[in-house]
């Protein structure tokens, strides 16, 4: 039986697992070109040079990228590193990085898209959401 001190030191939820699960949902939605991908995105993105853009701009960009392809086949990923830092009980930053690849099919021809990825997260209102994307096939 745990004593009170042990119970207080146990985190309410596992931040690392939450970040990884969100990254996996993002990647699976990417491979399916699914609208569900938007569930993992923060309301705004923070880009290098402190440039901030809205979620609607990112969604438009994703639709444009997905619209160029007939579909993605054989999506695979390998998560190599996960890290996060909590600033207080309700705010934090983190990332998931690794490699990903898939076959992009366009008019019965295909090309392999692969490379490193890094998804950046912010903890806000108790949820980890993506605030920046570096992913094979994605560009701002």
**From the helix content, strand content and strand pairing, which structural class follows?**
alpha+beta
Q: What profile does the largest beta sheet have?
A: 4 strands, antiparallel
Contiguous runs where pLDDT drops below 50 for at least 5 residues: 1-10
Q: What is the name of the CATH topology?
A: Nuclear Transport Factor 2, Chain: A
Residues in β-strands, percent: over 45%
Straight-line distance between termini: 52 Å
User: Reading side by side through the largest sheet, how are the strands ordered?
Assistant: 3-4-5-6
Q: Would you report the number of β strands?
A: 6
Q: Could you spell the SSE succession in H and E letters?
A: HHEEHEEEE
CATH architecture: Roll
How would you characterize this protein structure?
- The structure is a single chain.
- The chain has 140 residues and is of the alpha+beta class.
- The protein has a single domain (4-134), classed as Nuclear Transport Factor 2, Chain: A (Roll).
- It is built from 3 helices and 6 strands; from the N terminus they run H-H-E-E-H-E-E-E-E.
- The chain has helices at 4-9, 15-32, 55-67, and strands at residues 44-47, 51-54, 71-86, 92-106, 109-124, 127-134.
- A 4-stranded antiparallel β-sheet has the order 3-4-5-6, with helices on one face.
- Strand 1 and strand 2 (51-54) form a beta hairpin.
- The longest helix has 18 residues, at 15-32.
- 17% of the residues are buried.
- Residues 1-10 have low confidence and may be disordered.
List the helices and strands and how they pair.
Layout: H1 4-9, H2 15-32, E1 44-47, E2 51-54, H3 55-67, E3 71-86, E4 92-106, E5 109-124, E6 127-134
Antiparallel strand pairs: 1-2, 3-4, 4-5, 5-6
Protein name: DUF4440 domain-containing protein
């Amino acid at each position: 039986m745990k004593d009170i001190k042990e119970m207080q030191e146990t985190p309410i939820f596992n931040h690392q697992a939450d970040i990884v699960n969100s990254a996996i949902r993002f990647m699976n939605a990417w491979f399916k070109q699914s609208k569900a991908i938007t569930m993992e995105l923060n309301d705004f993105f923070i880009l290098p040079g402190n440039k901030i853009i809205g979620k609607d701009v990112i969604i438009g960009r994703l639709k444009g990228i997905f619209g160029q392809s007939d579909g993605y086949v054989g999506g695979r990923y390998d998560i190599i590193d996960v890290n996060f830092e909590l600033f207080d009980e309700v705010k934090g930053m983190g990332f998931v990085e690794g490699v990903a690849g898939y076959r992009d099919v366009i008019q019965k021809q295909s090309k392999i898209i692969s490379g490193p990825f890094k998804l950046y997260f912010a903890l806000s209102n108790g949820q980890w959401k993506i605030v920046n994307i570096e992913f094979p096939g994605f560009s701002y």
